[in-house]
Amino acid sequence: MVTATLRERMVGGSRRALLLLLGAAGLVLVVACTNLASTLLARGTVRNRELAIRASLGAHRRRIIRQLLTENVLVAGGGALVGVGMAALVVQGLKALGPASIPRLDQVSVDGSVLVFAAVVAILTVLTFGLLPARRLARSDVGDALREGDRGNAVGQRAHVWRILVGGEVALALLLLTGSGLLLRSFHELLNQDAGFHPGDVTTVSMALSQLRYETPEDHAEWYRRFIEETEAGPGVARAGFISAIPAQGALPSGRLELDGDPEKFGDGGYVLASGGAFEALDIPLIRGRVFDDRDGPGTMHVAVVSQSFADTYWPGEDPIGKSVSGGGMDGYWDQGIFSQVVGVVGDVRFRTLDQAPVPTVYFSYRQRPFRLRWSGRVVVEAEGDPAALTPFLRSTLRRLDSDVPPRIATMDSRLGEAVAPQRFTLLLLGGFALLALLLAAAGIYGVVSYQVAQRTREMGIRLALGGRPTAVRALVMKDSLGIVVLGLAAGLVAVFAAGSAIRALLYGVEPGDPVSLGVSVLLLFVAALTASWIPARRSTRVDPAITMRGD
Fold this sequence. Notes:
The chain is of the alpha+beta class. The chain contains 18 helices and 11 strands. Strands 3, 4, 5, 6, 7, 8 and 9 form a 7-stranded mixed β-sheet that branches.
């Protein structure tokens, strides 16, 4: 017996994905904060002379720090307000795109607690990432600042801090990019693996009949038989059949089944009621023997079809045709000792989820063992054309047979879309975080390199005046920035391998160290950094040497 708390039942498999997304949001916040810190350092460097004059006129260091922090609070407060407004719009989009498996998603909103949280994060961000630049600027030597003027040696003094900040941005951006790349590859593998059936031209009809009008299981079976018969006679229908569990939808009863007519010999397997048309409509391959047909009705010898994995597990090396199996405790016939003879073997089908291995399964004829039909039933219809075009015909057929039956009609493709909705939702959010981190990292690199170019304008002019080639000057500017980018990428790769266990459970068919995902992420981030460095470096070679020399 498996026990679980109510919270575990409610949260289910969403917990790990939500924690991953929370961590990704935190990483994006850190990347944004490092951008803020580097920007404040650069902006403060330009103001060195101003702050030195304030200090020389008697301004206390604490007064200067308060001034800088006040300015930062105003900037952070404005950013927080804009962020909350954007969050309200994003939340509405997420509620529309989010899967039903995420608990209480419809109740998510930007309320008072969110506003308080945003305010606290904004204040902590200013204190954490704004206080350090403010303290460094307040400690600047007054004499040195006045002698340096606007262009002094501040770049050299603070270059190591910028390198750490930019390198950290690159590492975190690589971590997020690689994570989204792994999920993208996993999603691709999930959609393209062999699930054991073909969904492209199938429409599904789920329904439950009234137990007051249809008193016995046999009454239910007869109604489904009539519905299938009339459906197959309709226009645009290639094949229709009954099946109690639709593939990849999570619902598959399973339990102990007696084998070979011996109550002491048993195995575990999934339990599915079906008709022969269901195998044909879903293109479940027949490997040996036959599937159900008109011979397998009420009053005849009970027959069964087993999956390949069931046959391999319980009759290895033997011919399963002619063996017998019971329904165990999953129908009302086990206590009567009624076994079904195996007449066919079909391919394995992923009934629970696309990322779970197929469960060994036994199929019984829904007309011979209709016990479970009293609760619900499903009919799969293979279309000759567009499966969605069958919906009006199916609704009219249902109304003609029983207008009180509330059906759910959907194409198999749409049902599979619902089945992979949690993975798609996680991929969408993590991909958005990764893109944002990439843009922030590129903006941070661009800002730092642009500032360094502005501070070294005179140097660049002198180099060009002395005959330096523009390409050599650009290479000089880009050398430092790309060097720290490479170090950041190396640190990011270490972080990716260290965080592999956190994302492994969300992957399918892909390992956390997948070289394709790592290679593409590194290349994408390096190209973005190269572009962000090249633009200001190119601008540095357009300096007029005469103007820079006169500016001294």
